[in-house]
Each structure stands twice: as C-alpha cells, then as structure tokens.
Design a protein that fits this description.
275 residues; eight-stranded parallel barrel; binds 3-methyl-2-oxobutanoic acid; cytoplasm; alpha/beta; 2 domains; TIM Barrel; metal-binding; 3-methyl-2-oxobutanoate hydroxymethyltransferase activity; transferase; 14% strand; magnesium; binds sodium ion
C-alpha cells in the first residue's frame, strides 16, 4: 500500500500518480488489481451511484457505508474518503468525530476537504491530530451554487494567483496532496511546480503530478454527463443494455433457462412424487 511519504517520493522522482474513484467492493477490487496508487471514495457518489443531481445531499453515513465496501474490495490500496457538504465548516468536534469514524469504522487512510480560506485552520487541526488530509482546489463541486455552475476556474491571472496562494496555505496546514479540478493546463503545471506536495489533477492538464478520474466516466457506465476533460476508456452502458434486452427476450420466449441451467429430479423420486 502507498503511504503519504511514498506519494511524495513519486512526485520527487517525477513518477505520475494514478487515482480513480470507487464506491463498491467489486469496483474497488478491479481498481486495486489495475495497480492504482490511490482510490478516492468521492462524494461524486451522489451523482454516479445514488442518482442525485449534485454532491449536496450526500451524508457522512453514505460516505462511510461506501468506504467500508471499497475497503472490503481493496485491502491493500490507499483510500481517501471525501468529507461531504457542510460536514467540516461549523463544529470542529463534529468534524473530528466524522474523521475518526471514516478512519476507524470505514477503514479509509485519509480524508479530503474542499476549499481553502476558513477550511485551512480545520485542516491544520486535523493533520496535527494525525489525520492525513488531501486538499481540493479549483472547481469544488460542493460550492457549485456559489461558483455559479460547473466551469473552468483560474482562467485569469488574479484567480490563478489566488489558487497558488490557496495551495501554499493548504501545504502549510499539512495536506499530503491536493486535487486540482478544472483549471487551465498552465495553472495545473504552475501549481505542481510551486508545491512540494503532489498535485493530482482532473481537468488540469498533463503536467500535474498525477491524475484522478471518476470510475463511471472512465467506463462509460451510467447516464451522467461526461465533461470535456474526461476520457472514457470503455463504453459499458450499451453493452449492459444489450445484455439486459437479451435476458428479457429469452425469458419471454422461454429460451432461458436452458436445460444446462436447470436442476433435474431422479426418475425414481419423480415416481414417488406423483404416486
Ligand atoms: O468526488 C469526486 O469524485 C472527486 C473527484 C472528482 C476529485 O472529488
Ligand atoms: Na468530491
């Protein structure tokens, strides 16, 4: 299993870091088998698995249930679990309680918090208490209503400078890595250059220290809108639909189950049954 210092060494050796989300055991098993450096149990869970249209309705209990499943599937992979909407802004005691449950009960190795500003102090408290924290800057979906939609962040010089300052503040607060979402490639590169800790990009260009994508987007599975920065390496939805249609047809037409799918009683017992 990767460690936070192992991830730092990867950055120093310019070895790219791979991360993908997972939300259940079979997905986690495959992600681990593929050799992913880290798994993110993202609150994108709300959209790609639970059917909400944002990450806002996701609860800490949702995150814990799915992180438990992911840990059962991937026993040897570094797992990061998102702290969901408004679970780390009002009451530090509550946030500590959630981080404790996420690590002790669910088996995650780290938590991820979105944003900087007021959140920086909370992150500093968590890291000094021994909780590994990953930051998340740029497009932060939990704040999408404030940002005014899912759009590219840091497009102008002053916004980009603010992102660098935020990343430095997170670094000073002790994060072991930062996800940077949906920024120009040049800003992704500058962030990776300006920070000691690994910058894991999603829609942040090729020069970040690593990449993260959502499992369902990579597989073309589900009906979620796939943004420009995603590459689908497979297109599973039509394959799944075909399989289901075949099943429906074969059941209707009495083709399934075929003889090889059935259990058969002995002749003798059958006689006994009918007298
Ligand atoms: O929830 C999630 O999947 C994320 C990634 C997009 C980084 O936070
Ligand atoms: Na997230």
């Amino acid at each position: 299993m990767k460690t936070t210092s192992g991830l730092l060494r990867m950055k120093q050796k310019k070895e790219k870091i791979t991360m993908m989300t997972a939300y259940d055991a079979p997905a986690a098993r495959l992600v681990e088998e593929a050799g992913m450096d880290m798994i993110l149990v993202g609150d994108s869970l709300g959209m790609v698995v639970l059917g909400y249209d944002s990450t806002i309705p996701v609860t800490v209990d949702d995150m814990i249930m799915h992180t438990k499943a992911v840990r059962r599937g991937a026993k040897d992979t570094f797992i990061v679990c998102d702290l969901p909407f408004l679970s780390y802004h009002t009451d530090l005691k509550e946030t500590f309680h959630y981080a404790k449950r996420i690590m002790q009960e669910a088996g995650a190795n780290a938590v991820k918090l979105e944003g900087a500003g007021e959140v920086v102090e909370t992150i500093a408290k968590l890291t000094s208490a021994g909780v590994p924290v990953m930051g998340h800057l740029g497009l932060t979906p939990q704040s999408v209503a404030v940002l005014g939609g899912y759009r590219v962040q840091g497009r102008n010089a002053s916004e980009a400078k603010q992102l660098i300052a935020d990343a430095k503040a997170l670094e000073a607060a002790g994060v072991f890595a930062i996800v940077v979402e949906c920024v120009p490639e040049q800003v992704g590169a500058l962030l990776a250059e300006s920070c000691q800790v690994p910058i894991i990009g999603i829609g942040a260009g090729v020069d970040t220290d690593g990449q993260v994508l959502v499992y369902h987007d990579v597989l073309g599975y589900g009906d979620v809108h796939v943004p420009k920065f995603v590459k689908s390496y497979a297109h599973l939805s039509p394959i799944i639909l075909e399989a289901m249609k075949s099943y429906v047809k074969e059941v209707k037409e009495r083709e399934f189950p075929a003889p090889e799918h059935q259990f058969t009683m002995d002749e003798k017992e059958l006689k006994g049954l009918y007298g």
